[in-house]
Amino acid sequence: MTTKVLRKVIRIDEDKCNGCGDCVPACAEGAIQIIGGKAKLISERYCDGLGACLGECPQGAITVEEREAEEFNEEAVEHHMQEMELATDELPCGCPSAAVTQFERHAATSTSPTDIACEQSMLGHWPVQLTLVPPTATFLNGADLVLAADCVPFAYAGFHRDFLQDHALLVA
Ligand code: SF4
Ligand code: SF4
What's the pTM value of the predicted model, to 2 decimals? Predict the structure, then answer.
């Protein structure tokens, strides 16, 4: 039996919802999907109730309310996101920003360690966020891998030149 607790969770007013889908990418937990032309909370367990999606709705259709709901379950969210990522990787019609893509790298224009300008991207694939890359991504096959903290590419001026020419990248 599912235990319910009193907590904050979203409510979607279907009369106001026009199905535009703006709220879907706003939810990092993948809790909202468009079904039958309307936004639906697919599982209370995926909704943390913090309201990150609220400001994205042009119709004012989403509100956070306190009610009896299933407890937020971070583990279930993680599992759900992994399944969504795999599905996106498999389907060419999936969200383009999450689709696994490989690029042709350009040759570096400078190898000087004092030259901090890096004019061309050396990134060889997309996506790069650890949570968005499925283990089956072809760019990981036999790759030398750089695992970087989110802030490193901003703090290290020569990041592309020094690390990305011959490595795959994951950021977390
Ligand atoms: S409140 Fe947070 S977790 Fe819940 S649907 Fe909105 S963005 Fe997703
Ligand atoms: S952003 Fe608002 S109107 Fe658009 S699908 Fe989501 S709930 Fe519906």
Answer: 0.56
- Cα of 89 vs centre of ligand 2, distance in Å, is 25
Residue 65 lies in a domain: yes
Asked whether residue 12 is assigned to any structural domain, the reply reads yes
Cα of 57 to ligand 2 centre, how many Å? 5
Residue span of the structural domain in which 153 resides: 96-171
**pLDDT tens figures, 8-29:** 999 999 999 998 889 999 999 9
Same domain, 36 and 81: yes
| Amino acid code (one letter) for 22 | D
- Of 60, 86, 112, the residue that ends a domain is 86
Residue 111 and residue 167: Cα distance in Å, rounded?
Answer: 16
